[in-house]
């Protein structure tokens, strides 16, 4: 009996225990539910109050928009106080923000294409995800980019637009933009991703690409305007060749008056680079390509506007995720695409405008030279022995731990069995001048008095005198010259040319010899077209050189650091 009673009691205890557990779980769940409901109600209220504020803000803005302003891409002007405010804004943000806010977001642009493009028919079936990244860009400019894509793209070719906010600090971009998308663009597939930390434009693009669903990715800066039929030739070309990466012609939208200027409808340039690691525009190199409206080989791309098949983007190594901030990713991707089996092309019948600004309107965390560091990364990974030419400009970065670990990128290069940089130079960009290869002589060019040829700090592709300066003891780019196998006395892009029979200027190399042609004879630099010799006679430190009647003598003697052949 006692034993039985004890057993019964044990059962009761067990039951009680189970009930207790169930009860407390239920209680906890209820608590969770009520709390959640409360917070739901709170945000609901929050959204509703801010919706009201946002709506008012938008209406106020929309009321001020001047219909027709900037239509057909004409330069636009405001008057009175607005005009003054606009000029101030231009100085502060490198963009006339006042004008942009008054211009319709869906302004009409004229068709800027070469008329031959109208005869070409495209019928792509691929869908694109358009990815637009931004950091503290003006909302009206971002939205004009979005509207231009929506208006100029047939809906069956557009999977979505993905806006990636690289953690802007600008208030208006926090809620108002989202509200605009939810109300004014609710019938379109425009998504907004807000990054929790500022990641820099390279990682921001990667975040966008990860979300994208389309067959192709098209990246745009957040201050662009697409024009008629811009997307069809890009997608068609990808459909034809999945390894082709395409760049539209990038037209200039003026930062001051938002004019869409086309620089004539048929002339355009493709991408090159400088040994200092910058993107440059170059003329189309192959005569047969000039005037064509089909895609044209481009050695590099500017970086902001391009189309790529989505899987190919990932297969070929997307981006170097350790690249920070701004810069370098464009050349990295260009070299990689060519060296690893893809192609980079400019598509003349696809045109997109871009607002070119005189300076970055945003700052960089810690003031880091991200362009330099990123370029050092790509030089180590992709440029083989030619990286020596980049590090000539950035010696401090050559063996600097700030450049970071490169293992993954080097592994990628191996995995993809990519070709050498030499192959790239020979096959993709044979016109690229290599200052220390296939030249007669290079290095410092000295007189017997320790004076050297010097570019007097002339920046690339500007015109200025060829000068004389005390020879630097250590390497200095300003005193680095080459005597090319074509008889040019040159830097990377500028050549010494005789003007007015005696002045010697550094001007863009034209390759036609004439006044840019020099012979190195018995230590003199002889200019056959004027029959004169380069002379340092009576030239002071830091002053311009000249050519004079050849007389031999110390003032006309020059010696190069390295002479290959004479
Ligand atoms: O930290 C940042 N986070 C960002 O999201 C810094 C910038 N950005 C955004 C920015 O808001 C913009 O939408 O990134 C985009 C590009 O920045 P821009 O417009 O200041 O750059 P850019 O036009 O001066 O520079 C060119 O080179 C860059 C090198 O990293 C990028 O590749 C840009 O996309 C590229 N722009 C173009 O190719 C447009 C044609 C210009 C030319 C030549
Ligand atoms: Mn830009």
Q: Please, could you describe this protein's structure?
A:
The chain has 566 residues and is of the alpha+beta class. It has helices spanning 2-64, 80-93, 97-102, 139-152, 176-183, 200-211, 231-240, 310-315, 329-339, 370-382, 387-393, 407-415, 421-427, and strands at 128-134, 158-165, 190-194, 216-220, 224-226, 244-254, 260-261, 270-273, 279-282, 296-297, 306-309, 343-356, 439-446, 451-454, 464-465, 467-470, 481-484, 489-490, 494-499, 503-508, 519-521, 524-527, 532-535, 543-544, 546-549, 559-563. It is globular, with a radius of gyration of 31 Å. It has a five-stranded mixed beta sheet with strand order 3-2-1-4-11, with helices on both faces. Strands 5, 6, 7, 10 and 12 form a five-stranded mixed beta sheet that branches. Among the domains are: 1-65; 439-563, Trefoil (Acidic Fibroblast Growth Factor, subunit A) (Trefoil), CATH 2.80.10. The longest helix is centred in the first third of the chain and has 63 residues, at 2-64. It has 13 helices and 26 strands. The structure holds ligand LR7 and manganese (II) ion. The site of ligand LR7 has 25 residues, from strand 1, helix 6 and helix 9.
């Amino acid at each position: 009996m006692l034993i039985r009673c004890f057993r019964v009691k044990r059962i009761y205890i067990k039951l009680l225990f189970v009930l207790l557990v169930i009860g407390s779980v239920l209680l906890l769940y209820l608590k969770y539910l009520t709390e959640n409901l409360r917070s739901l109600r709170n945000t609901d209220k929050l959204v509703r109050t801010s919706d009201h504020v946002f709506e008012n803000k938008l209406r106020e803005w929309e009321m001020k928009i001047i219909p027709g302003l900037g239509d057909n891409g004409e330069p636009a002007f405001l008057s009175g106080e607005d005009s003054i405010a606009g000029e101030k804004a231009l100085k502060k943000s490198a963009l006339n923000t006042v004008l942009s806010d008054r211009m319709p977001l869906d302004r009409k642009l004229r068709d800027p294409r070469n008329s031959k493009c109208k005869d070409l028919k495209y019928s792509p079936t691929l869908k694109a995800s358009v990815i637009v990244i931004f950091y503290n860009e003006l909302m009206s400019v971002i939205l004009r980019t979005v509207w231009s894509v929506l208006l100029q793209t047939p809906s069956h070719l557009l999977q979505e637009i993905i806006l990636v906010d690289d953690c802007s600090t600008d208030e208006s971009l926090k809620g108002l933009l989202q509200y605009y998308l939810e109300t004014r663009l609710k019938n379109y597939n425009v998504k907004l991703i807000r990054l929790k930390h500022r990641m820099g434009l390279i990682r921001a693009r990667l975040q966008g690409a990860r979300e994208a669903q389309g067959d192709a990715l098209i990246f745009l800066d957040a201050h662009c305007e697409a024009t008629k039929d811009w997307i069809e030739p890009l997608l068609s070309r990808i459909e034809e060749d999945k390894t082709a990466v395409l760049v539209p012609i990038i037209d200039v939208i003026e930062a001051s008056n938002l004019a869409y200027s086309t620089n004539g409808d048929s002339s355009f340039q493709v991408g090159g680079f400088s040994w200092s690691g910058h993107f440059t525009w170059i003329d189309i190199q192959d005569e047969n390509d000039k005037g064509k409206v089909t895609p044209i080989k481009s050695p590099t791309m500017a970086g902001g506007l391009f189309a790529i098949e989505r899987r190919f983007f990932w297969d070929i190594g997307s981006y170097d995720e350790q690249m920070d901030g701004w810069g370098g990713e464009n050349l990295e991707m260009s070299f990689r695409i060519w060296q690893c089996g893809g192609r980079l092309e400019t598509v003349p019948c696809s045109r997109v405008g871009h607002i070119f600004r005189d300076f970055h309107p945003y700052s960089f965390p810690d003031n880091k030279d991200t362009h330099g560091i990123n370029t050092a990364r790509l030089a180590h990974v992709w440029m083989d022995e030619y990286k020596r030419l980049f590090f000539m400009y950035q010696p401090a970065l050559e063996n600097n731990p700030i450049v970071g670990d490169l293992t993954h990128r080097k592994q990628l290069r191996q995995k993809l069995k990519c070709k050498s940089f030499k192959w790239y130079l020979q096959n993709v960009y044979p016109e690229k001048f290599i200052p220390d290869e296939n030249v007669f002589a290079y290095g410092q060019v000295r007189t017997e008095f320790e004076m050297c040829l010097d570019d007097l700090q002339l920046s690339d592709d500007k015109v200025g005198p060829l000068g004389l300066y005390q020879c630097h003891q250590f390497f200095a780019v300003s005193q680095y010259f080459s005597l090319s196998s074509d008889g040019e006395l040159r830097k990377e892009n500028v050549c010494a040319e005789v003007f007015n029979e005696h002045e010697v200027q550094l001007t863009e190399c034209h390759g036609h010899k004439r006044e840019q042609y020099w012979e190195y004879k018995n230590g003199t630099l002889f200019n056959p077209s004027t029959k004169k010799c380069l002379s340092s006679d009576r030239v002071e430190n830091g002053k311009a050189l000249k050519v004079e009647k050849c007389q031999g003598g110390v003032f006309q003697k020059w010696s190069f650091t390295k002479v290959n052949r004479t």
